[in-house]
Amino acid sequence: MDFNPSLLALIPILPLIGFVLNGCFGNRMGRQFVSIVGCALPITSFVIAFRAFQALRGSESEAIRHTLFEWIHVGSFQVDMAFTFDGLSAVMCLVVTGIGSLIHLYSTGYMRGDKSYARFFAYLNLFTAFMLMLVLGDNLLVLFVGWEGVGLCSYLLIGFWHEDAANCDAGRKAFIFNRVGDLGFLIGVFLIFTLFGSVNFAEILVGVESISDVTAPASSLNSAMPMWGTVAIGTLITAITLCLFVGATGKSAQIPLFPWLPDAMAGPTPVSALIHAATMVTSGVYLCCRLMPLFSLSPQTLGVIAAIGACTALLAALIALSQTDIKKVLAYSTVSQLGYMFFAIGMGAYSAALFHVVTHAFFKALLFLGSGSVIHAMHHEQDMRKMGGLRRQLPFTHLIFIIGTLAIAGVPFFSGFFSKDEILFSGFFAAFHGHDGHVHFQDQLFWGMATLTAGLTAFYMLRMVALTFWGKSNVDDKLVDHVHEPGGWMPFSLAVLAVLSVFGGILNVPELLHWLPFVGEERTFLLGNFTGLHHAHTGIDLDALHKLEWTSLIISVGVGATGLAAAWYLYGPGRALLDGFVNGAGKKLVRISENKFYIDEVYQILIVTPFQFASYVMFILIDRFLIDGVMVGGSALVVRSFGEFFRRMQSGFVPAYLLTFGCGALVLLFIMMSLLNGAG
Amino acid sequence: MPINLVSADYAAILPAVILIATGLAVLIADLFVTDDGYDNPSSEKSHLVWIGVCGAALAFAALFVPSGLLFGAWSENGVASGSEVVFLGALRLDAFGGFAAAIIIVAAGLTTLSSGGYLAAQGQNRGEFYGLVYLGGGAMVLLAQATNLISIFVAIETLSLTVYVLAGFFRKWKLGAEGAAKYFILGAFSSGFLLLGMAFVYGATGEISLAALGKSTADPYLMNVGLLLILVGFGFKVGAVPFHSWVPDAYQGAPATAAGWMAVAVKVCSFAALIRVVVAAGQGGVADAAIGKMLAALAVVTMVLGNLAALNQTNIKRMLAYSGIAHSGYLLIPVVLAFQGTPDPKVGAGALFYLVAYLLMTIGAFTVVAMVSNGDTDREELESYNGLAKRQPFVAFAMTVSLLSLAGMPGTVGFLGKLTIFKDAVYSGPYLYLAFVGILASLVSVYYYLRPIVAMYFREEGETIEIVENNWGVKLTLVLTSFGTIALFFCGKSVHELSVRSIQSITG
């Protein structure tokens, strides 16, 4: 199929046009206009992206490229505003435009009554444009523009209801946490440039190949950087990848930079679904996948990533156990699932990470939009303790939640099952077989944490369903009669996402399960093969591998089932048992979980308070005293007093004028004569 | 020695003759009885304005007639025009003189246009004003063309007499009489320096021609000291620190439009003569490099002190006076470079171009001052401008354009002028520091140029401001100066090229 490469540029530009139109004229043109512009342009982007995807699949070439214009050209440093559409970009692009479009449609219903309707769609379109720039960028700088752009949109949308100061604080928190990560990211980009002499992905990967191929001369590296001569290249690569990973922890909410994400739930729910679940927060994972060969060169970095991922997954799951705000549960669940993805990257299973990005986008967007329907129905009540028994009034939403929960819990043959199983298996393989034949204790520990997380995930998700939809109703009497199912485009978006959540796993079925209907031998690992990220496990024969796979699968399904069963029992027939535990033996544990392991408080004491103190000192010393006082005030004072001095010298008396004149002339003459004598 | 006048002689003095004839015509026309009765100083006397403007237009046209001063530079693309020594070396017919003359003539026309209504409102509209402007204008044009010491001195004295009188034109006003008297006394004092310097130079070379400045001489020491004394004399005329004391007092006491005339025209012809002197001296190679250093020192002191002293002024005329001093400082930079001949002999063009810019923005600013004061000399304080923009948006706009141009903001011709001068200084090598000082000084100047703008746009009106309204001449002046200030920013290139060709006519 023919595909004009210049159409690639349209994919991010169309939503940008939407931003301009809605931003400039939205308020005057009315909601109809805003809805049509706001939704039609991302959908068009999706269509173009899909056509590009088909073209890519049908062709032999690895990628479609298009250079929009030469952006920066200084000496040997050249960066183009260029886009690349390869397997990885294609997957991300389809997720962003596809799910993005569904969420845009959903928003036409959810935001119906909001007075800043046009502003909302303008921001949402801008976000889509930046996100597409991020995933399509041909080099790190274009990616960085998108990276910062989505951060900005995230900030704007978290604080969308800016009349409430708490929302603005949440926006600022997100922004500041991201700034910390961005600093790491930037340092990583600088280091990459010094090492490879380029920020272009293709050129970086060429450089990486020359490093991994020890026989080749390191000519493609930046030989103009002799200062790296003393530093081993391996160390430098570890530094680069760690810096980039710091950036990823900021954007993808990993330890230690995760606390902004739960607070980000202050934004409207479609925003939480689009930005803080399906797309933006996965850009850290995307970055790692994009530079996979580089990350693979540093086992140290991969170890750090695995550790951070596993710890984040477990910690967030533990916090999610006790949350009472429906969106907070989902937020911590997102942090936890992102931890899974990084755990997979740490294990070297990039395709599993990307696969989980995709399926997670399906079911988490579904769950968020479902929670949006609940919140919408409950008139912006988010506390699950004030819900309960909603199954009767919201049967459709209840079904949505069940599907989402089964998917995220990894119940067999739902989408989450395949991706989570692949991740857990990569951990299992490392823990009990070993990539290099050696088994490491820390790998076993990480696998244990990840598996435990799977059980906890199933538990807190079903707990959420139970509290919201089952049992007796705690709904406010005034609200009870108004609770209703959503209308308009909202059920449509939910239904599409539900179908994807159920069947999305078909994208990357493991070879083990090739006998499933609609799969077949030739359709295993579709996603991994298409993106080129899939790596078969080597050094083991097929039968042994299958044995390991089955073991891992049974363990993970078993753990998930245990979690579900426990939640079903404890929040149903065994409620008394649970209450006994919460008010008795487990009181302190519950308190710790409720308070999010006191992370915010620790940050407050360790970072915020010293920082505020230092800022205050700086403010008084540098700003008030040095800049305002000495420099600004001082220079103005000096200049003005000079001015005043000369004003007074102008006494008005002619003799004084004559004296000035004469003395001036005499001084000139004197200097002149001495110069002449000196020369003579 | 008999003088045989040839056509070049007539062509050379034609603009000056027309200006002087205009001055006489105005004086005669003022004798006739008009509708308002005989010599009513409160009448607008539009006929005098008309005669003056027509005379200026005629003189301007005379520059461009074949064999006229600017004809060569104007018509021959890029080729330095031919020049001729006329009147036995007293004057020279060249494009350089023509360019300066053009600025002076335009200044005379604009001053005439803006003065009718203003002087009438003051009750001081007497024909002598215009007569003095045109008689002085003739002398100024001759100064711009003068090429020997005698003609320079005669021209300077002639034009000085007219501006002394203009400075004290409001003779019943104490400040006016006082300023004029100070100006006169200090002027006489400075003439002494000038004359002494000329005597020294003559003593060293035995010749009165400027060309002699370059010739080798038996006594270079005497000649250099003589040159310095001549520079002191010119320093007084242009208001360079420390010979500037007269400027604020004279400008404050003078009628606002006369102050604009003094600021522009006197500066133009003095700088023209000064550049002729330094180019001749510099090309000869006898003049010591110390002369350049002295000039540079004058430039630095003038830029810095002029701007600093302007900071705290509350009277707008005094502020503009100090601003004029500061601009003399900027203008001394190309003079230094022209003396040094670096980076190439054409650098003096920066001064010519800057003077065009200075003409537009200064006349514009003083015209607004004249309109606002409207017969009341108390209304020259800064507070009088509070809230002007609400009642008189156009006047406030014209003032803003002029002040921004004086401050050197992009979008105005003042920016291009400063850019040309500072760029030349940067490329000159040894005088790079002049550009730094100049830029810092103009940074300071932004403060006081913005003060009237802030007053006009952001302050509440204190008292109702009545201005000289419905006077076509004043309005036309403001339209022309504002338009010119902005338009020349966008198409200043042709003017700059003309200035380069003009300077080539004296540097070769």
In short:
The complex is a heterodimer of chains A (680) and B (508). With 680 residues, chain A is mainly alpha-helical.
The largest beta-sheet of chain A arranges its strands as 1-2
Helix and strand run of chain B: HHHEEHHHHHHHHHHHHHHHH
User: What is the straight-line distance between the termini of chain A?
Assistant: 89 Å
Poorly predicted runs of 5 or more residues of chain A: 215-220
C-alpha Rg of chain A, in Å? 30 Å
What are the main properties of this structure?
heterodimer, A: 680 residues, mainly alpha, 4 domains, two-stranded antiparallel sheet, 3% strand, B: 508 residues, two-stranded antiparallel ribbon, 2 strands, 72% helix
Secondary structure layout:
The complex is a heterodimer of chains A (680) and B (508).
Chain A: H1 10-29, H2 31-58, E1 63-74, E2 77-86, H3 87-110, H4 117-136, H5 140-158, H6 165-196, H7 201-212, H8 233-251, H9 260-263, H10 269-278, H11 283-290, H12 292-296, H13 299-320, H14 326-346, H15 350-377, H16 395-409, H17 415-432, H18 441-469, H19 477-480, H20 490-503, H21 526-531, H22 542-570, H23 575-583, H24 587-594, H25 599-649, H26 654-679
Antiparallel strand pairs in A: 1-2
Helix pairs in contact in A: 1-2, 1-4, 2-3, 2-4, 3-4, 3-10, 3-15, 3-20, 4-5, 5-6, 5-10, 6-8, 8-11, 8-13, 10-15, 11-15, 13-14, 13-18, 14-15, 14-17, 14-18, 15-16, 15-17, 15-20, 16-17, 16-18, 16-20, 17-18, 17-22, 18-22
Chain B: H1 7-29, H2 46-62, H3 71-75, E1 84-86, E2 91-93, H4 95-122, H5 128-145, H6 149-167, H7 174-205, H8 220-238, H9 246-253, H10 256-284, H11 289-311, H12 316-340, H13 349-373, H14 388-391, H15 393-407, H16 413-428, H17 432-458, H18 472-490, H19 493-507
Antiparallel strand pairs in B: 1-2
Helix pairs in contact in B: 1-2, 1-5, 2-4, 4-5, 4-10, 4-13, 4-18, 4-19, 5-6, 5-10, 6-7, 6-10, 7-8, 7-9, 8-10, 8-11, 9-12, 10-12, 10-13, 11-12, 11-17, 12-13, 12-16, 12-17, 13-15, 13-16, 13-18, 13-19, 15-17, 15-18, 16-17, 16-18
